[in-house]
Every structure is written in C-alpha cells, then in structure tokens.
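Page 42, continued from yesterday. The earlier attempt failed because a stray header line got pasted into the input along with the sequence. Redoing it now with the clean sequence only.
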Amino acid sequence: MAKIIASKNGTKKDAIIQKAATLFREKGFVASSMRELADKIGVEASSLYNHIGSKSELLQSICYKIANDFTIHLNEVETQKGRTAEKLEQIIRFHIHMMLHHYDELFVANHEWKQLQEPYLSNFLNQRKSYESKLVAIVKTGIECKEIKKINPHVVVLTLLSAVRGLEFWQRHKKNMDTKDIESDMVQHLLNGIIK
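This time it went through. Structure tokens are written below.
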C-alpha cells in the first residue's frame, strides 16, 4: 500500500484529518470506520495510528479546528475600528468562504459535534455560545450607534448564520453559480436588510 502524502502546506496528520472529514460527511461519524478511512487514503489501517490516536480524536481535531478558525477571525474583527456594517460584512464573507472552501470540515463541525466525548463536547458548545454572544454584541453596538435598524440582535445573528448555512444546499447540488457571485449577492442581500 501507499504512504500517507502530506498536503502542500500541511502534515500527514492534516491529510488524514481532511480525508476523515470527507468520510464523516459522506457516511456520518458513527457509521465510519478507521479501516474505511485507511482505504480512502490508500494505506493500512495500522499505519493511521502512527499519526492519530482514534476516530474520536479525528472528530475533535475537525470540530476544534473549525471552531478556532471562526473564533480567531471574529476576535480580529472585534478589535478593528470601523462601522458595524464593515465588521458584519467581514464576518459574513468569512462564513461564506469557509462554507465554500472548507465544506467537509464545516459540515462535520455543524452536524457531527454531538458525537464528541466529554469534556470536548462541553468545551465545543461553550466556544459556540461565546462566538454567538460576541456576534450579538457587535449587532447591539450597531443598533446603539444607529447603524443598524432596531431589530432583535439575536434574530439578526440567527438569520445571518442560518442564511450562510443554507449554502450546504448549493454544495450538495453544485448549482451552476459562480462562488464570487454567491458571496457578493449574499453579502448585499443580508446587509441591505439590516443596515440603515
């Protein structure tokens, strides 16, 4: 059998995690096996354990990488000066970028997180709650500054996040649409509904 090939800017473990994300998206975490993952990569199952401890560790890596990417980006946006609209646009564009370019990992983080074991499950949920709270705070600031219409900030955040998650439909069916057009249209549509 072949050796595990590292991705261009990553490690062999990164390559395994990427393949695991694809497998977990296609079959679900519970129904996937390390043997199937090894077959997908083209190696013996035993060689996976030189790089990864367990299937659960793979799920943790996928979920936490996605959560950390979103948290780091949001923290960067939070510290910037500028109007709320500009911050929300950056956040929406980042969500769209992640959905279009890291679909497998994001799908797994959105749908298979329930399979995380403790304490990872609680930590992951706390990170998600913190992220949503920070988004709500950004929207509240925009309302207070009269940059955003007086709408319930939780509804705004729910609408934005739900709309971007709707790109899963596009990913599943690969409608004939340019990704740049999707991003621009979504940003315009979502922001023009709330910006004064």
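Notes: The CA atoms of residues 72 and 81 lie 17 Å apart.
Reminder to self: strip header lines before submitting.
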